[in-house]
């Protein structure tokens, strides 16, 4: 039986990115040994998109109000890309201390992590 999902981000500064995500997500974290921090994620969902190219995987955080979330992140000194409208949602990216970017979006489609809206 599948009990959860484990996402992996690769980073040039893993320690800084772990601390950043721990503080950003404010969820339960555990030390898996030797200071190797594993951070709990909020409820998640998975989608499978078709591709003509090489299969790849992406990770996005979701929020209910991308403008308010971006304003909060910027007030905390976090770099964030400009928000773009993709039709299916409003998309941006959070700048990680290790140099990577983590997608963030406000979905406009039904989400699997919440009960259906009336």
The averaged pLDDT comes out at 90
* Cα shape: globular
List the helices and strands in order.
HEEEHEEE
| Structural class label | alpha+beta
Q: What is the topology, as strand order, of the major beta sheet?
A: 3-6-5-4
Radius of gyration: 15 Å
Q: Low-confidence parts, pLDDT < 50 over ≥5 residues?
A: none
Please indicate the count of domains: 1
What's the level 1 CATH class? Alpha Beta
CATH domain topology: 2,3-Dihydroxybiphenyl 1,2-Dioxygenase, domain 1
Major sheet details: 4 strands, mixed
- Please tally the helical runs, counting DSSP H or I stretches of 4 or more residues: 2
CATH architectural type: Roll
Q: What helical percentage do the residues reach?
A: 10-25%
Proportion of beta-strand residues? 15-25%
The beta-strand count equals 6
CATH-level-4 superfamily name: 2,3-Dihydroxybiphenyl 1,2-Dioxygenase, domain 1
Note the gap between the termini: 32 Å
Domain VOC: 1-107
Organism: Actinomycetospora flava
Protein name: Extradiol dioxygenase
GO molecular function, one term: dioxygenase activity
Key features?
118 residues, globular, 6 strands, Glyas_Bleomycin-R_OHBP_Dase, 2 helices, alpha+beta
